[in-house]
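Sequence design from tokenized structure. All designs in this work follow the same two-part layout: the structure record, then the generated sequence. An example of the structure record is given first.
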């Protein structure tokens, strides 16, 4: 237990001190100022630190929030894919830095977080983007809390921006047939893989002939390709998978394989003229959108071919758990909710 003592100086003034036994067993005293109230506050603080075992430990630093964000990005670099790290960086540079500026980490309060969300809404940023920005902010402050640099998460009591769930766009079976018939010989096999294997665009662009199993009828997803970061592993363990494909898709890929002169296992299935991965923008604007126009079907995004695959599988009676694995989703709820 700590105790308060009053000391008198030679000039007649008095000061208070708090006496206590430190964790090493030594009798110690701390100056507490000229008022008994300040001494009582110091006494309570010391007793709490002694009880918690934190007395004498260096208090955590209170850095500028944006400097902490930079440290966070460095730590995150080895934990996520390059594309995800770049996404975090863009959010920090374009949204967090302009708003929080030079505020200290301890100054990020629930009220300030709410003001930040209002600020994003005033800038007419879409609800989905606001939700992503807020999710990244939560990850950053949670990291600070895990390092014991803040005692409470200021985002804990703030609700995420609401995003209205939109019905997913997808083609019917007849529209898929029209699309594949209208596509030229170069793009048709790629679109067939998107529609009947459900691979993501990056997974298709990174696909190599060694990943296609003609005997067992499946495609192994072991890598993805991004325009800015090149080849990398799939974004999660669930994304690394073997996708069963129908016999007619096996036949389409076999014909492509033969027409290219039986390429080696390390050759890309859908390369450009130089044997490198195709440019994402060219694939969409010059090939996919042209095929949609020629087929006279609804304008959809390339990613909606993945939704088309899921829709066709459900219509064919595929087991939801099997569909989850084929889609590379981390949970069955993600598959069924979408």
């Amino acid at each position: 237990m700590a105790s308060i003592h009053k000391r008198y100086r030679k000039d007649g003034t008095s000061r208070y001190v708090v006496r206590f036994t430190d964790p090493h067993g030594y009798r110690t005293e701390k100056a507490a100022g000229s008022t008994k109230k300040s001494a009582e506050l110091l006494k309570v603080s010391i007793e709490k630190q002694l009880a918690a075992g934190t007395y004498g430990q260096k208090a955590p630093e209170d850095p500028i929030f944006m400097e902490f964000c930079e440290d966070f990005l460095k730590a995150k670099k080895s934990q996520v894919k390059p594309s995800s790290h770049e996404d975090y960086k863009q959010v920090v540079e374009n949204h967090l830095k302009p708003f929080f500026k030079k505020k200290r980490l301890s100054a990020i309060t629930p009220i300030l977080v709410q003001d930040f969300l209002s600020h994003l809404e005033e800038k007419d940023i879409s609800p989905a983007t606001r939700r992503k920005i807020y999710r990244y902010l939560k990850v950053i402050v949670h990291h600070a809390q895990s390092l014991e640099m803040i005692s409470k998460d200021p985002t804990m009591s703030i609700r995420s921006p609401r995003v209205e769930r939109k019905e997913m766009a997808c083609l019917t079976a007849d529209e898929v047939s029209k699309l594949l018939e209208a596509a030229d010989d170069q793009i048709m096999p790629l679109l067939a893989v998107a529609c009947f294997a459900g691979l993501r665009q990056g997974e298709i662009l990174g696909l190599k002939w060694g990943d296609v199993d003609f005997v067992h009828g499946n495609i192994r997803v072991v890598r993805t390709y991004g325009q800015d970061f090149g080849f990398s592993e799939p974004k999660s363990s669930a994304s690394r998978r073997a996708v069963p494909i129908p016999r007619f898709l096996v036949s389409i890929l076999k014909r492509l394989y033969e027409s290219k002169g039986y390429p080696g296992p390390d050759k890309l299935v859908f390369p450009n003229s130089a044997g490198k991965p195709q440019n994402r923008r060219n694939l969409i604007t010059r090939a996919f959108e042209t095929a949609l126009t020629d087929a006279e079907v609804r304008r959809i995004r390339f990613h909606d071919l993945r939704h088309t695959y899921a829709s066709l599988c459900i219509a064919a009676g595929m087991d939801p758990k099997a569909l989850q694995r084929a889609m590379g989703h981390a949970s069955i709820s993600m598959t069924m909710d979408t």
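The mean pLDDT is 90. We note this feature because it recurs in several other targets discussed in the main text.
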